[in-house]
Amino acid sequence: MGGLEAFVETPALRALIVDVPNPRRARPVLDLRDLRHCRELDWIELWRAARLRGVDVVAGLPRLEDLVVQSGNCEPTDVEGLPITVTPATRRHPGEGV
C-alpha cells in the first residue's frame, strides 16, 4: 500500500481536498469525482487512506455501493455532510445472485 499512500500525498490529490463552507463540517473533504476515469485506482483503499487522515470523501466514487459494503464503519457522506442513503438492493454482496 506504499504506492497508494504516496499517491494520496501527491499535490494533485491534495488539490482535490476542499473546504466546504458548512458549520456542520469541521473536516476537510476529498472530492474524487474528477478521478472517476482512473480505473487503475483501488477505490476502497483510497477511501480508507483518506479516512485515516481525517478527510471525508464526497459522493462520486465508482461503485459507491461496493465501498459501503466493504468499508466497515466508514459510511459515506455527501458534500453537505449528510449520510448517503444506499438502498438495500445496492448492498448486495458479490456472489449473491441478481
Automatic annotation (TrEMBL):
* Record-given protein name: Uncharacterized protein
The protein's organism comes out as: Actinotalea soli
Lineage from the top down? Answer: Bacteria, Bacillati, Actinomycetota, Actinomycetes, Micrococcales
